[in-house]
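Batch manifest, entry 17 of 40.
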Amino acid sequence: MSFLTIGHRGMMGVEPENTLRSFARAEREGLDVIELDLHLSKDGALVVMHDADVDRTTDGTGPIADRTLAELRELDAGDGERVPVFEEIVDAVRAPLQAEIKDAAAARALADVLRARDLTARVEVISFHDEALATVSRLLPGVRTALVAEHYGIEVVDRARAVGASALSLDIRRLTLELVERAHTAGLRVLGWTVNTHDQLRLSRGLGLDGVVTDFPEIRRAVRFTA
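Output type: structure tokens
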């Protein structure tokens, strides 16, 4: 498999994160995969937003879980963009997706959508929460999953294997060659985040990573110079 570039929340370095505009930009820039984040609204919609609260990325305040989808749609998510739901992203872009479950409650809802729309080949489910990945794998056998971690050690390889994940998505600041080699020996792909500079991209290549998560289109264009 070639070295993957993954658009972080779409192309959040140049567009409002987790919006249709951001995802369209990521696809236009040629990112191999597009990453997004999922929470459940008060009425059970799979809302695309990173934080549990709407404060940072919209003109509203308070938890996502306290608002219905209709109420969330009234918010400005940046430059006039509206808060999307997962199904809209599936229809808006053709690129493969990484869907990050931000809370375990969204696991079942996501599994239902992936099954109903036959999306298991296109969507990889990722999460910081081991139990969320285990739940998705139980509900949807054969789905591809990746364990995400920021504070971790070598044991993260065993954690990923325990929940049936096929990949690790790890904070590049803690990555070591030993960990990457152990993960590869265990049959796991290793992705690094967030890679936004040429030095970080060169490090990723030197570590033998399988791909990187980035905020900027320049990293996609620079990949060919670091092969």
